[in-house]
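Exam revision sheet. Question 4 asks you to relate a sequence to its structure. Input first:
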Amino acid sequence: MIDCDKARELIPWYVNKTLAEEEEREIASHLAGCSTCREELAQAISLSWKLDTAFDRMPAVPERVWEKVRTRAQGISLAQIDVGSFLLGLSLGLSVTRSGIPKFKSDLRLLGRKVALFNSSKGGLK
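Answer key, structure tokens:
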């Protein structure tokens, strides 16, 4: 059986349905008997729903804005990312850091500048 600290650590993963089956069973069992963690779960579900709703309501960027960006950025590399490798690395890294194995960091180059995306040794997403 897991304790409340471990349950709170796993709740975001539980909400996103990204836990291994064994962890999912353990947290479900814990939630069945812990009203404090059920409240935490309810808040996480509410936050997830609010974020999804907010993103769905965001208006599309007008084409004239994209045209200005294309005009001003002509000849400049705006962004470069190997999405497949990044997502694989992020997924592996997050699962590894949850179990206490080596930490990592990930960066993205955007508009020619390095943008730190993730640094597990400093607690996660930047």
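Marking note for examiners. The two ends are 32 Å apart (CA to CA).
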